[in-house]
Prior knowledge:
Elements: H1 3-10, H2 17-20, E1 23-24, E2 31-32, H3 35-48, H4 55-58, E3 59-63, E4 68-70, E5 76-81, E6 87-91, E7 95-105, E8 114-121, E9 130-136, E10 145-151, E11 160-162, E12 173-179, E13 183-188, E14 191-197, E15 213-220, E16 240-253, H5 260-263, H6 280-292, E17 294-297
Antiparallel strand pairs: 1-2, 3-6, 4-5, 5-16, 6-15, 7-12, 7-16, 8-9, 8-15, 9-10, 10-11, 11-17, 12-13, 13-14
Amino acid sequence: xxxxxQILKQLQHPLIETTTHFWRGANMGxxxxxxxxxxxxxxxxxxxxDGSFQFKETxxxxxxxxxxxxxxxxxxxxxxLDKKAGCGFQTKNQYRFGWFSMKLKLVGGDSAGIVTAYxxxxxxxxxxxxxxxxxLGNRTGQPYTIQTNVYKSxxxxxxxxxxxxxxxxxxxxxxxxxxxxxxxVFFVDRVPVRTYKNNDKPNNxxxxxxxxxxxxxxxxxxxxxxxxxxxxxxxxxAPFMSSYKDFSADAxxxxxxxxxxxxxxxxxxxxxxxxxxxxxxxxxxxxxVGRNLVIYDYCTDSQRYPTPPAECSL
Length: 314
């Protein structure tokens, strides 16, 4: 193992600086890791894909089971959507706080009207808490839009939309959520694209009391997903397929009536001081995203919210 790999192995941490701070050159659409670190991560990723992950030990299939398939080694999972049905999967366990990560490759070609979702939710009821990644398809040759949202006690309306600096249909990319009592951070390839803060006071906007299940799904949303519903799903292109692999949850697994890991602090890296706020380099990356990739932010939508919601001032 190279010196670089030994160093990185000693610093195995999802928020480690070398994997989050990217060089941004003249072409602001491309971000690159230092070569040695990139090679090391590639080796580590290959070593991790050793066929040891068993899908059925972690997930249950939802929707039409005949619309779910796996690669021969069981390490890549495919969800299909046609006019008859869609499909999804969810974790058998619930969690409260932690780091949740998965690699996705989105529907290619004409994906208008199609939504691939990767999200967390406490339940399906009207009082649910929820943290959303939603990938909104588009007509051929046009970029995907990534939408994030946060629900507390059934109230959402906290959408942000971003463009991406890569084509998410060409290869797998990593989408992650860091959730602790201080903030929720949405990451794309370890780059923080959105930070949603808590004010450490009783409030109606920060979800931190209910355990959540992790879900993934593909479904038709052509009444709103692409250009506000103007672009409809072209079913001649069906079936539509999204791909998944390398799920990880380094988190507090829920146990009734109350797991000990919820009430302790600094016992896990995702609840240590360094994870309570963005580092300096993460702030730089987040600032670049804010200046270049934000399409919509509910906090600046004065027509929808004449008085900005309380969390927007944090």
